[in-house]
Amino acid sequence: xxxxxxxxxxxxxxxxxxxxxxxxxxxxxxxxxxxxxxxxxxxxxxxxxxxxxxxxxxxxxxxxxxxxxxxx
Length: 72
Known about the structure:
Layout: H1 3-20, E1 23-25, E2 32-34, E3 41-47, E4 52-58, E5 65-71
Antiparallel strand pairs: 1-2, 3-4, 4-5
C-alpha cells in the first residue's frame, strides 16, 4: 500500500470517528441524534478538489433539513 493510500485511509477513519460522535439537533422540532449511523436520512455532497463535504440531513420526525458542512 502506498503512503498516500495509507494516509487517505487514516483520514477517512478519523473523519468517520468524529462524525459518529457529533450530534445534530433539528431546529424545527428538537429531534437530536448523531450525524452518522442514526435516524437522520443523510445525503452527502462532496467537492473533492477543495475537500468540502456537506451532509444534508432530513429529520425523521418533521422532515425538515439540517446542513452540516465540513472542510477537510
